[in-house]
Amino acid sequence: MALTVPLPPSPTSPPSAPSTDAPPPESASEGESKAEQLRREHEELFHELRAVIPGAEVLFAFLLTVAFSQRMDTLTSTQRGVYYGTLLSAGAALVLLLAPSAFHRLRFRKHDKEAMMITATVEAIVALWLISLSIAGAVFLITDILFSTTWAALASGGIFLLAVTCWWIIPLSRRAAQDTPRDDMPTRYSSGR
Fold first, then answer.
1. pLDDT tens per residue, range 60-71
2. Is this prediction's pTM over 0.70?
3. pLDDT tens digits for 119-147?
4. Dihedral of CA 49/85/171/153: which sign?
5. How many CA atoms lie within 13 A of 7 on its CB side?
6. If DSSP codes are grouped into helix, strand and coil, which group holds residue 3?
7. Residue 67 region by backbone torsions, left for phi larger than 0, else alpha for psi between -120 and 50, else beta
8. What would the 3-class secondary structure string for 134-190 be?
């Protein structure tokens, strides 16, 4: 078996590929113009909304059918209150999730995409809070009918805690970790957008 030793690059050889150990670029928008960045962020937002809206629609439709079921007459005042709060949360979430499309249509070709992105981001975040409340409310209502109020409180609290952990605590803790500069990381990579 022959032993090969890599030769140093000659002055005329092409530069070697960058090391794969280097930290990732600061953001995906590096090298993009403002218009390209807005276009990319717009597409990402609408892909995310397309994933969330059907779930909110199904939840809202389920809640509407409950109102017209025979079981509605047997609900306690607590169950009716939870039902109505859940219905309002789901309805408001659906309005907020559909709002960016309305904004985009009404402001089409008015070069207002940055304002739409800022508004739509806030609307999507508030809608996710409302959806988490709606899911917890639906779980409370069904569990209370099937078992007891104690089990309903535990189940809905667990679902809400799961949503808060997955949708806010994990991403925000990751963001906080990336925003903390580290000594072993070059300065340009420590801002972590």
1. 887 777 777 777
2. no
3. 888 888 899 899 999 999 999 998 998 89
4. negative
5. 4
6. coil
7. alpha
8. HHHHHHHHHHHHHCCHHHHHHHHHHHHHHHHHHHHHHHHHHHHHHHCCCCCCCHHHC
